[in-house]
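Field log, afternoon session.

UNIT: design team B
ACTIVITY: writing a sequence onto a fixed backbone
BACKBONE:
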């Protein structure tokens, strides 16, 4: 006769997480973006728009940055992020109006 399986007593149950053999590392929380890197990226994108006479990006890239820029700006202090987002939107609108007048996208 085969003995039926019975789980180990509660105190003997092994942990999935830990540092020993056969154990997984504890889950790591997602890192918070470095504000300096975010600031550098956003100010660089804004500078590209400010220096442009025509939209410097393809329609796909323009849509991407129109959505992504304000989301990335939320990783900065509120007043700084909102100021950058407003400046970006003004420049984007200026270049978008230029597209409507001249009918071209990079």
């Amino acid at each position: 006769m085969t003995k039926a399986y019975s789980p180990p007593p509660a105190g003997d149950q092994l942990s999935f997480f830990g540092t020993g053999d056969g154990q997984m590392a504890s889950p790591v929380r997602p890192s918070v973006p470095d504000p300096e890197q975010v600031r550098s990226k956003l100010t660089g994108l804004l500078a590209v728009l400010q220096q442009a006479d025509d939209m410097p990006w393809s329609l796909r890239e323009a849509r991407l940055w129109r959505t992504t820029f304000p989301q990335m700006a939320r990783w900065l202090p509120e007043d700084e992020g909102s100021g950058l987002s407003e400046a970006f939107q003004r420049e984007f609108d200026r270049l978008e109006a230029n597209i409507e007048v001249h009918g071209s996208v990079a």
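LOG NOTE: The radius of gyration is 26 Å.
NEXT ACTIVITY: expression trials, pending approval
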